[in-house]
């Protein structure tokens, strides 16, 4: 238990003393003779009781003799109560067996009754003293009342014991010892003493208010004493004797506590006060002099010798005329004369050159009460006011600075009437000083500052506190402006508030800038929609109202192609139009936020699954309508993922993540739709993450390989080339679709080393086929946007061609439309470099993006590839037929060839042949093949062409070697 530092020394002594007594009890208890009587017990008992009675009387006497108004009430209670305890102990002593009869015949029972009464009064007093708060509210009437109550109680107990002892329970049976009542009563007394000791111990954790440690030792010792009185069987045995000794020790502890507190401590405090007063006088920075009636130095005290005209030893005994210059001496003598007549003199100032230099001193003179046999003496305090005079000069400068401050300053009285304004105020308010002096500052009110602001301002000012806030004011001409105002009370020397001073600053521009910053930090700059930070605040509010809400993640389809082909300005205009459409179709309580790029998030409170589905259908229909942007008509679709709280998450981050996951599933399934989040989607996302990590080791572990799909000329059905297709066979997941891992490789940057490996492997394979006797063919290799954007691409390709010995015309690089149109100027430059080195170039998936024919004719393109989406229904769909025909015609008009991919039926082949398409590839001829199967397939084609008429070659070509169609 922690003990307050003010109790620690005495507490340690008390605890050691109690510990020693307890140790004596524990060690001596087994060896005490017990029932054996003590020789000459009666005089010993009388001596011990007399000692206890004397100590109790001394305790009362010490307390009663102290000034009651300066004594804690509990101390007075303790003193009066122990007077009663002493009187009861006196009755116990006189009632003891062997003593002359005391009023009535003495007996063991009579003595025990007085004993128990004294002990109970003592225990209750200790408990009350420990429980009640210590205060100095004791008064003389209170003291007499308390004393009377104690004496009446003692008198009543005496009467009871003398006149009606038969009403009391039996406490002792001769020959048998103590009764159960007597033993139980002693244990109850022990409990009361220990409870008081515990409370006193708790008092020792607080600031010292009385000698709690001494009382604690007395209470503990009394408890130990009572223990012995539970064990004796004869009134003269050893237990009884030791118990009386412990009781006497407890009284001694009590008396010491009272004596220390009421006698020793006041003298200690007096000595400390005298020492503090002496230290204060020694610490005074001002010289304090004592002069007699003639102006002679009687005593000199100076905290700093440099403030005296001469050392103190030289001043003593000299007169003012002898020690000071004439002017200073005359001023001091005049102050002494004024003090002689009025009793004091203040405010006279004299200049004096001292060791510290030229200083100014203000004299305070007081006339001392005359002492018998001595003349009149004066106490003079010479205060150095040089600093104050300098401060006054500084204050004068400060006053000028306030008047010339660029910030408005206003001083009013306590009723709010203006007493001072500076020039800056007149400039900002456009009022002259004469127009506002004597008026209330409310002449500036615009009516737009809330009334609560003024109420709060006056509430603080009337409490003597400062106030700071913003006020919207109006100038004389009607201009509204916002001022940051600091108003604080001005106090006089006595600490009383006399005026209010206001500092003002026009913060109108700053407020506008802050509002703009707030807008930018919480809203999207382009659309003005809330950003993710503001969305989080809306979510916190909505989730407190109801846990049922829906989160929509809306992502525009192929928006990157629009940015790449038409530019970011057109993309921004499209995003602005889309945001307006979405906002107009969402409920009023919904929050629409733009996260980044073409991602929008809608927060829909109180929305179920059915309601969310219905809303998404409407949004998709609205977005599908044509958009006019920069004079161009566009068609936009979107993919929407939906997460519902609380099933799909209760935190915004988890709901956003799940809604985004559902959106990506829509992308994978064809776009322009919506999906609700399901745990299976989470598993799919986990698979994508695992695939991304595994892909990092796929190339070094040899898990990647190439297959080759034949490319057939429609002029003579000859195999003229092959497209290298990347495959991944993972040891755990088996064959992984390129549609899964190619986007992952592009996203994490692995496509660059993988693409270089693909190019190198394909060229080496072509070289091997040529070396084995196959005719010259073209190896088509796809380049991703990331690869095409790499610096040094042309040099890298040329180096691989040189290493493998493949002629440049044997390589055809396939680029997507988006890659070519992303930065047309840069793309055209890079294509020119590749073309100049003899490398063929092809545009893959032509017609699926946003082509610009003006740029296309500038590219050095050899071939356009018709996407399989236009080939799939080319036999029945007029639109696909028109697109395919147009691509062929555009290519031929620009001097390019065409190749169609995904040809699977004879009908598709016949239509393409009829429109003049140059080449085809697809399952109608062959699936992608391993290198050796591809070589066998080419040789079969050559043999068929050599042995059969031209119209029969096609049938032979369609039959790949056994086992190659996997």
From TrEMBL:
The source's domain of life comes to: Bacteria
List the PROSITE patterns. EAL (PS50883), GGDEF (PS50887), PAC (PS50113), PAS (PS50112)
Domain called GGDEF: residue spans: 547-679
Q: Is Transmembrane among this UniProt entry's keywords?
A: yes
Name all PAS domain ranges. Answer: 394-440
List the keywords (alphabetical): Membrane, Transmembrane, Transmembrane helix
List the Pfam families.
Answer: EAL, GGDEF, MASE3, PAS_4, PAS_9
Name of this protein: PAS domain S-box-containing protein/diguanylate cyclase (GGDEF) domain-containing protein
Starting at the broadest rank, the lineage of the source organism is: Bacteria, Pseudomonadati, Pseudomonadota, Betaproteobacteria, Burkholderiales
